[in-house]
């Protein structure tokens, strides 16, 4: 297989990484086919495409895995996506920032969108895979390499369909791993214009390969960042009454603010504040002059999310007023919760059943994790699902965002089939 890269502003094809006849990895990874868990379920053109191109999907994923790029730096990944889409006659366009791709397939007024995220995490991989990350301090430990390869496969398969009942828009989004997320860049660039529904998948190492988990309602939580900086004149710990005890004030906020919030918001909302960092002082006998406290505040309730910032600000002010410590609060809103609507979820479940059969349908729990797919659902209806990537027992369940995360590559073909069938069901 030869895969050539192409920059949007350069005519023809070129590839700075792979030589003609080579796989996408410089090391020349040997590709072995994987089992297609939905083989024979149709439509015929999808079965034919996967028989001929399944190993290509694996190779794309392995190449992207070996060459990860961090948020808003996904230039080579963007080039690869553009090239692979152009080579089957499609006309992708790149976002103004130079990373991220949008591409329409088919014709007609009706349009549904399929989204994948393309950025990596600032982690060092520790899997020992032959196609491990070759980029220092960056690795695809969240499965975005798989998401990208799956959407490339779905797009190229749809491009070969004899006829589509409308348009399918491919959205390859940068910068999912940073807040407030690259979904906002996509929306600002017009990626949702004319779209009636949007769908996405995310790798889930708790589900076995061959299963896709769906849920009506909140699937992920809103995730906001809090940074509180405190100031004091400082002084000797023997005379705390002559200064403002900054460490005591930090402790007050650390212990009291989560409790206050638990009494001020509906406990059914899944709202949770967890501190991740606190820094103040050096000497045991000196009251420090400054300190900082950082944490995340999450909720699964959209209305609660909108009310949290002023509630946190007023609560912090009340807690610190008796201490005499000065403070500044930086409250950074992150992403809204991902809330899948009932109709879109039903269509996605129909897509899963058509892709791999009823046995592939699974439920899934609401998570406190954040996912910027929620920004799309602020504008159009849609559904988000969890793609099983666990090989099953006795294989360990290596969680995402860890240096040891691995996935069962059979899930790639399940993902391609699921996205194709979901698009067809949504346009029917």
UniProtKB/TrEMBL annotation:
Pfam families in UniProt: Peptidase_M20
InterPro entries associated with the record: Amidohydrolase, Bact_exopeptidase_dim_dom, Peptidase_M20
Signal peptide start-end: none
Gene3D superfamilies assigned: 3.30.70.360, Zn peptidases
Protein name in the entry: Amidohydrolase
Provenance organism: Amycolatopsis albidoflavus
């Amino acid at each position: 297989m030869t895969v050539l890269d192409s920059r949007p502003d350069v005519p023809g094809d070129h590839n700075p990484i792979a030589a003609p006849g080579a796989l996408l990895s410089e090391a020349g990874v040997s590709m072995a086919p994987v089992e297609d868990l939905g083989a024979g379920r149709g439509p015929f053109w999808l079965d034919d495409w996967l028989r001929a191109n399944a190993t290509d999907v694996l190779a794309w994923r392995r190449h992207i895995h070996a060459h990860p790029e961090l948020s808003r730096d996904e230039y080579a990944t963007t080039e690869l996506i553009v090239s692979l889409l152009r080579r089957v006659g499609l006309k992708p366009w790149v976002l103004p920032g130079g990373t991220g791709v949008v591409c329409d397939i088919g014709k007609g007024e009706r349009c549904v969108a399929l989204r994948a995220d393309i950025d990596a995490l600032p982690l060092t991989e520790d899997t020992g895979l032959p196609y491990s990350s070759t980029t220092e301090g960056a690795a695809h430990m969240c499965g975005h390499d798989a998401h990208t390869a799956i959407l490339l496969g779905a797009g190229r398969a749809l491009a070969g369909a004899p006829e589509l009942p409308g348009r399918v828009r491919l959205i390859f989004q940068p910068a999912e791993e940073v807040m407030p997320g690259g979904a906002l860049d996509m929306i600002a660039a017009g990626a949702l214009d004319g779209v009636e529904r949007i769908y996405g998948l995310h790798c889930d190492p708790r589900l076995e390969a061959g299963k896709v988990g769906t849920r009506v309602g909140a699937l992920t939580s809103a995730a906001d960042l809090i940074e509180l900086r405190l100031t004091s004149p400082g002084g000797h710990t023997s005379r705390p009454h002559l200064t403002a005890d900054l460490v005591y004030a930090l402790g007050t906020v650390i212990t009291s603010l989560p409790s206050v919030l638990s009494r001020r918001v509906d406990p059914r909302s899944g709202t949770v504040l967890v501190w991740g960092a606190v820094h103040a002082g050096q000497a045991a006998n000196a009251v420090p002059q400054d300190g900082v406290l950082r944490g995340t505040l999450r909720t699964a309730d959209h209305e609660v999310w909108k009310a949290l910032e002023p509630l946190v600000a007023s609560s912090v002010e009340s807690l610190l007023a008796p201490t005499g410590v000065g403070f500044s609060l930086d409250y950074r809103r992150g992403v809204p919760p991902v809330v899948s609507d009932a109709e879109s979820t039903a269509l996605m479940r129909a897509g899963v059943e058509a892709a791999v059969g009823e046995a592939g349908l699974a439920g899934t729990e609401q998570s406190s994790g954040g996912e910027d797919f929620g920004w799309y659902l602020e504008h159009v209806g849609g559904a988000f699902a969890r793609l099983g990537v666990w090989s099953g027992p006795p294989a360990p369940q290596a969680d995402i965002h860890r240096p040891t995360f691995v996935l069962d590559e059979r899930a790639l073909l399940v993902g391609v089939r699921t996205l194709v069938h979901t698009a067809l069901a949504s346009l029917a």
